[in-house]
């Protein structure tokens, strides 16, 4: 135990979802060592206060117990003492997400941000970590351990010792404990492994083949060599789970087991397409946000929100390249890519919040708005992922058109990458745009003013038309219609009647989850949370089917409970708006070809 800071983590009580942690600081600060736990995890812009899951802390030096004083809800100070100073505590781990920690008898997972206190003032020193195997009989079968941190004595996928050069490196490495498959592959002299946990019958060889092409394309985009020697994808598959979190040389992913490809079936399901997009997204982040990053994240201050108006450039641009990688590496055909793109156009078009919040504002307010969405969010905010991806597309097309094909967004990404490689500096709030203009030799000021700092719609109709793709809009056929395809048959049926709500099933009828600005329901006084119990005097059971009996302009009487009070509303139903996009390419658009 030669490291200045050392942790020993044990899956101590899987049935109670408790990890136990013993932390030792070799030379505590003379005036009283301060410890603190991060309030957020990089990549997920919400104060999560992981300290809420910690049990009581205790400290005992060679001379007896050491008093710990809470400085606030996430930091503590030990009484002055001579080292070494050991500290012990437990962490409750029952957060089934990629951002926290989880432990039961079947599986364990943790980000060190949830378990490992920072020894303030010693963060730049080397940190040792030992992860113990759980006691026999406390978990199902024999567990293995997967973590991308360099091992110091641990066998591959075995429990044992790991080492991190500093605290920031320690907390950038998630660990998976339990039963998992490992599929290795190697591209561009870089070793990869996909670690898959959770029960499944997926074709992991096909997954690895496709992911290898994605990784290779992205490494070549930025230029070899990759900025890591080894990269680990950790994928947990389950039911009703989805998410990903990027790290410097790994990522933790969650998806439905049904999204994995099936042995002997080489069709490309929508679920598998989304899964490949998730792998692609997080891998792209290894360059864009884990290395090229806002100055506001250089370094990360995990004790408070780190505000930047640039999240569109890190999440939006990454969201653009995630699916673009799939088509340009030849993993998915052009028509499937365009269908995905049309669904993004549809999603943005359906939120009137796009006319109230700019991309810069959406980025800056992510902590309180995007990450804390409520029933009014579609009316109030725009996603820096979705509109950000569209802004990146518009920028790519504009650069290609204004430079007559000589430049593209790829050149901007490579310029950002070179700058990071040469300086390691963060991107100041106005620098991203300046670098884009330098890399392309174009005046993009007016474009950025509109795309990033105004709520005007992006000029995509014209840009896509010039790129050989016609943008077409129609009304949604149903609530499940997310766009991407034309209507199956040209029809002259009258437009569908809607009332401008989103809803969910409720034991008593139909619960309104969102009431949209400008919609008939809002005009009539309905609110989110109202439970419709009758439509036109009949029990409310299927809003779409029951409204389909009406023509736009009809008045429909709705009965709803609001806090147990029965209310009646006369709603003038509207025609479904033309907010559903599909894209028709004239040829294979140039910017989507592998040589683009
Ligand atoms: Zn992302």
Fold and architecture overview:
The protein is α+β, with helices and mostly antiparallel strands. The protein contains 15 helices and 30 strands. Strands 5-4-8-2-1-12-14 form a seven-stranded mixed sheet. Strands 23, 24, 25, 26, 27 and 28 form a six-stranded antiparallel sheet that branches. It has a five-stranded mixed sheet with strand order 16-17-18-20-19, with helices on one face. The model has no long low-confidence stretch (mean pLDDT 96). Residues 281, 285, 315, 318 line the site of zinc ion.
**Apparent shape:** globular
Overall residue-averaged pLDDT value: 96
| Number of H- or I-type helical stretches | 15
Bound molecules: zinc ion
Strand element count: 30
Helical amount: 25-40%
Strand content: 25-35%
> How is the largest sheet built, in terms of strand order?
5-4-8-2-1-12-14
Kindly summarize this structure in a few lines:
This protein is α+β, with helices and mostly antiparallel strands.
Observed structural traits:
binds zinc ion; alpha+beta; about 25% strand; seven-stranded mixed sheet; 30 strands; about 600 residues; six-stranded antiparallel sheet; single chain; globular
């Amino acid at each position: 135990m030669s490291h200045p800071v050392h942790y020993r983590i044990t899956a101590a009580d899987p049935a109670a979802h408790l990890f136990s942690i013993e932390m030792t600081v070799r030379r505590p600060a003379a005036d009283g060592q301060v410890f603190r736990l991060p309030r957020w995890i990089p990549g997920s812009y919400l104060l999560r206060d992981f300290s809420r899951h910690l049990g009581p802390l205790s400290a005992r030096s060679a001379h007896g117990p050491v008093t710990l004083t809470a400085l606030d809800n996430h930091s503590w100070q030990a009484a002055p003492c001579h080292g070494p100073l050991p500290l012990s505590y437990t962490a409750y781990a029952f957060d089934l997400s990629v951002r926290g920690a989880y432990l039961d008898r079947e599986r364990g997972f943790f980000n060190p941000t949830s378990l490992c206190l920072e020894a303030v003032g010693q963060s730049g020193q080397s940190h040792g970590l030992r992860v113990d195997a759980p006691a026999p009989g406390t978990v199902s079968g024999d567990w293995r351990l997967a973590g991308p941190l360099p091992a110091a004595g641990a066998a591959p996928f075995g429990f044992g010792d790991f080492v991190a050069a500093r605290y920031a490196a320690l907390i950038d490495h998630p660990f998976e404990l339990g039963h998992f498959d490992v599929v290795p592959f190697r591209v561009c002299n870089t070793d990869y492994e996909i670690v898959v946990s959770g029960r499944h019958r997926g074709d992991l060889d096909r997954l690895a083949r496709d992911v290898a092409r994605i990784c290779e394309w992205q490494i070549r985009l930025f230029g070899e060599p990759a900025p890591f020697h080894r990269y680990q994808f950790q994928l947990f598959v389950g039911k009703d789970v989805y998410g990903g979190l990027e790290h410097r040389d790994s990522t933790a992913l969650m998806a439905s087991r049904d999204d994995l490809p099936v042995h002997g079936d080489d069709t490309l399901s929508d679920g598998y397409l989304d899964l490949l997009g998730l792998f692609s997204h997080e891998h792209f982040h290894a360059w864009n946000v884990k290395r090229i990053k806002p100055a506001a994240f250089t370094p990360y201050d995990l004790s408070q929100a780190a505000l930047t108006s640039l999240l569109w450039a890190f999440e939006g641009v990454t969201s653009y390249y995630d699916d673009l990688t799939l088509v340009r590496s030849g993993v998915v055909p052009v028509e499937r890519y365009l269908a995905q793109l049309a669904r993004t156009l549809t999603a943005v078009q359906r939120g009137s919040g796009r006319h109230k919040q700019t991309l810069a504002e959406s980025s800056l307010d992510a902590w309180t708005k995007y990450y804390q969405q409520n029933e009014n969010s579609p009316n109030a905010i725009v996603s820096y992922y979705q509109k950000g991806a569209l802004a990146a597309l518009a920028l790519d097309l504009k650069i290609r058109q204004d430079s007559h094909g000589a430049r593209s967004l790829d050149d901007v990404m490579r310029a950002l990458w070179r700058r990071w490689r040469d300086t390691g500096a963060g991107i100041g709030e106005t620098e991203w745009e300046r670098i884009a203009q330098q890399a392309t030799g174009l005046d993009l000021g007016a474009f950025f003013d509109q795309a990033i700092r105004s709520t005007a719609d992006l000029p995509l109709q014209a840009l896509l038309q010039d790129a050989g793709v016609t943008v077409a809009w129609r009304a949604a056929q149903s609530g499940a219609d997310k766009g991407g395809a034309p209507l199956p048959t040209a029809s002259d049926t009258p437009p569908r009647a809607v009332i401008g709500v989103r809803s969910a099933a409720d034991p008593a009828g139909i619960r309104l989850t969102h009431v949209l600005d400008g919609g008939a329901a809002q005009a009539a006084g309905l609110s989110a949370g109202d439970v419709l119990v009758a439509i036109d005097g009949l029990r409310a059971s299927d809003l779409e089917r029951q409204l389909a009996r009406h023509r736009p302009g009809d008045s429909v009487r709705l009965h709803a409970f609001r806090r147990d009070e029965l209310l009646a509303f006369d709603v003038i139903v509207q025609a479904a708006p033309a907010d559903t996009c599909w894209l028709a390419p004239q040829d294979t658009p140039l910017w989507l070809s592998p040589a683009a």
